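User: Please fill in residues for this 309-position structure.
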């Protein structure tokens, strides 16, 4: 399995480490327009790999070197500075995606390659990458709200004193400020959240749910304030997505891919079955009326941002 990563900043280098640690790639290729940065990352990672798996890790200065890639991960572009929203990156990162995707496509097998998009604003970048690459939507996969859903499950896990692995709770819609939590279909070990709370005598009133929503929405802003950027969470999400694809696991992940055609086409996060061929199926969880309205509002925001390009 040959995996190429384009953009070796905070996120790209953390993604490279996390993907290397899956042990699933025999070769990892790093490309950044800052070649010195990519070379330094490849050196450092190569040394780390000596303690785990024998992987060929190289930094390259031409796209020709990504030939034969099974998966290409795009993590290049401007990141949020304190106080900036993801949407503030729209025009700068549309230019980055428009620069990278044609070069990638000129050097991969369009019949098999899977593109993973990480660059923000995520959903609009997925739409743009899919349009430029002309790949089937199922093989242009944005990490979407995988990270947001992980943040929700982490907070709930602490609140409910139960493993994150036993919690099925989704954040859907935009990977951005309009994302929404589907409380109606949240469950723990197959038991709906309300029943779980009653049986375990844990109270999760509306005020607590609103606080949780606020924490999920603001997690990135808080991390950026304290650390300058976020990288470990997203690296974990990308490695998990790579694992799901490479092993054809068919797990349900809240990734973002383009649904629909023409002016009705839109990428946003929904629960989707992911396997070796990319997104295999899209599911719609049970939602109450206000949740459905929130999801529609999130979709409108993504479409409006795409139309700004
Ligand atoms: P960074 O500034 O640390 O790194 C960006 C890298 O991209 C730099 O090394 C730069 O040289 C490279 N780059 C820029 N334009 C390029 C081009 N045209 N070709 C090749 N390389 C290019 O930024 P970061 O913190 O690593 O963030 C990268 C992106 O990931 C941002 O858009 C950020 O918002 C996004 N991000 C997404 C998620 C998510 O959940 N999807 C989470 C965190 C960050």
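Assistant: Residues filled in for all 309 positions:
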């Amino acid at each position: 399995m040959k995996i190429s990563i384009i953009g070796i900043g905070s996120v790209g280098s953390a993604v490279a480490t996390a993907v290397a640690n899956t042990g699933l790639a025999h070769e990892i290729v790093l490309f950044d327009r800052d070649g010195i940065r990519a070379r330094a990352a490849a050196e450092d990672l190569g040394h780390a790999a000596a303690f785990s798996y024998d992987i060929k890790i190289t930094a390259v200065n031409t796209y020709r070197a990504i030939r034969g890639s099974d998966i290409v991960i795009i993590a290049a572009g401007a990141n949020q500075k304190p106080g900036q929203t993801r949407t503030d990156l729209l025009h700068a990162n549309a230019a980055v995606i428009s620069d990278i995707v044609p070069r990638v496509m000129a050097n991969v097998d369009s019949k098999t390659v899977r593109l993973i998009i990480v660059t923000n604003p995520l959903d609009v970048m997925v739409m743009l990458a899919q349009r430029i690459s002309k790949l089937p939507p199922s093989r242009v996969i944005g990490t979407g709200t995988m990270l947001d859903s992980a943040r929700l499950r982490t907070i709930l896990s602490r609140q409910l004193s139960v493993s994150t692995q036993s919690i099925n709770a989704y954040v859907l819609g935009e990977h951005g400020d309009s994302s929404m939590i589907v409380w109606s279909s949240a469950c723990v070990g197959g038991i709906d959240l309300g029943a779980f709370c009653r049986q375990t005598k844990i109270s999760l009133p509306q005020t607590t749910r609103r606080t949780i929503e606020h924490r999920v929405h603001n997690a990135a802003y808080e991390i950026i304030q304290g650390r300058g950027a976020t990288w470990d969470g997203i690296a974990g999400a990308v490695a998990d997505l790579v694992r799901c694809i490479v092993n054809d696991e068919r797990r349900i992940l809240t990734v973002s891919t383009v649904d629909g055609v023409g002016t009705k086409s839109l990428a946003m996060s929904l629960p989707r079955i992911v396997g070796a061929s990319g997104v295999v199926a899209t599911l719609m969880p049970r939602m109450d009326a206000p949740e459905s309205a929130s999801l529609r509002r999130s979709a409108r925001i993504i479409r409006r941002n795409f139309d700004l390009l």
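For context: The CA atoms of residues 154 and 292 lie 24 Å apart.
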